[in-house]
Design brief:
Blueprint (H helix, E strand, L loop, with lengths): L5 E7 L14 H12 L4 E6 L3 H8 L8 H15 L4 E5 L3 E3 L4 H4 L6 E5 L15 E2 L2 E2 L2 E8 L2 H13 L5 H11 L1 H4 L3 E3 L9 E2 L14 E2 L2 E3 L10 E3 L8 E3 L2 E3 L5 E2 L1 E3 L9 H13 L4 H11 L4
Length: 302
Amino acid sequence: MSGKKIGCLFLHLSNDEGNNYEEDTFLVPNAINSFKKWHPEVDIHHITNDNFKNYLKDLGITEYYDAIGLIRIYIIRELLKQKGYDKIIMLGLDTFTCSYLDDFINNNEDDLICSSGPPYIFMKTNYWAPKIVDGDVDFINADVACFNNWEAANILINKSIEFWTNHSEQGGMNYLYQNQESLNIKISIVDFPYNKANSLYNVRSKGIAQGGNQMYKGKLYNGNYKDSNSRVIGDVYPTSTYHVKDNKLFTPNGKQIKVFHYAEALGVKTKEEYNETLHEMKTLWFNQETKHFLIEQCNMNF
């Protein structure tokens, strides 16, 4: 127990950006229930189409930049400012939690704690570009983060809009990270660099499949299987090679998985693709040892 007031936000809205999660009974319950299982003391804010307007009214949010990713930052900013929270953890709907997130909860030094996306050096804009540090690429994925003060959320909103790209708030996070000294803000990436990280909080536990659409119909691809330049490199999904030790979930190279991010762009897939991918997640992605751990220790369903 940290003695601090902590919240966790899950934004579950359906609009013209995608509605695949609207009738979901697998991903969203697993995301929320697994986090709650490991953090019973944390307040859960599960924002849906049904209660969204109530949150806006209660927090006095009358204007916001209408992009799903950035809307959650507006809400986080006001929760921190108005409701007395010391920190707010932000998790995507396609995540699950399989450990106490001590790297977030015990870190009170950084303003914003982020997590690693795929090591893509080419993922850049006119405003920011990732760097290679200790053999790794410091590229941030937005779906797993922790805000330690309202100022961090406030500057993220402002800079995301000022330097707007299709990366939305993820672009803002990367901009802040690359320019943190000049902006007088302190930002860290919790599982970076990979070779020094003991635990993983995002897509890196997917191994070579971390880019998405690289595990398909039992085959492992070296890139998106839809890309004509991609080729089959194996028939073992990296996610099927995890093991459990001392009530912890590990990758084959001994890195503990604390948050897992499916990261398959589920929200924008066609219904057919969505259902196909969901079926694979339930039946092919994880071995029985991992499923047993997730069901028994993380309160998940399969």
